[in-house]
Amino acid sequence: MTNATVTTETKPQETSRETCKHFVPDMSDKRWKLVAATMKKNNYNPRSLIEVLHVVQDSFGYIDYDAMAYIARELKVPFSKVYGVVTFYHGFMSKPAGEHTLVLCTGTACYVKGNDQITDWLKERFGLDPNQTTPDNKLSFMAARCVGACGLAPVMILDGQIVGKLSVEEMKAKIEEWLSNDNQ
C-alpha cells in the first residue's frame, strides 16, 4: 500500500515513517473508497478504529504503515495506537500473508501443554519466529495470546481450522501433513 495505486498483485515496498506521514491513498481505487466511506459513516470517530482496520484488512489482505498512518491521521488518533491494535490482534497482518497461515495460541493453558515447544520447532524447522512468513511465501506463522479455545489446549489454527487436544509430536505431524498435502 506504499503506492497510491496498489493492486493485490503488487508487493509492498519498505516505507519510512516520514513517507507514511504524507501518504494519500488513490481514491480511484474502490478499496480505498470503501475505507474512506467507513470512516465517514462513523463520523471519523476514533472508536471506529477496529472496524476501519477490518475493512483495510479485508480489502487489501494486510495493513501496512501507510494505511496505519492514513487511518491515524483521519481518525485523529496516535499512530502508536493504530500500530498497537494491528500488532496485538492476530487477525490483523502488517505484511501480506503466506499461502498458508498457522496461528499458535500462547495462552496459559496452551503454554502449559507445550505450545512453546511448537514455537521452537517452527524456528528450527522453517526458520520462523512469530509473525513471520517463509521466504517462499508458503507459510505465515502468527502467535496469539489466546484464541478462546482453552478446553482444546494446546490449540493451533491451520488456515482457519482450529486443531487441538494433540500432543506436541502429534501437532508437529499435523503441521507437516497439512503442508505436504499442498504439494500433492
Automatic annotation (TrEMBL):
The keyword Disulfide bond does not apply. Transmembrane segments: none annotated. [2Fe-2S] cluster binds at residues 105, 110, 146, 150. Pfam families: 2Fe-2S_thioredx. Keywords: 2Fe-2S, Iron, Iron-sulfur, Metal-binding. Binds 1 [2Fe-2S] cluster. CDD domains: TRX_Fd_NuoE (cd03064). Coiled coil: none annotated. InterPro entries: NADP_DH_HndA-like, NuoE-like, NuoE_dom, NuoE_N, Thioredoxin-like_sf. Its cofactor is [2Fe-2S] cluster. Belongs to the complex I 24 kDa subunit family. This is NAD(P)H-dependent oxidoreductase subunit E.
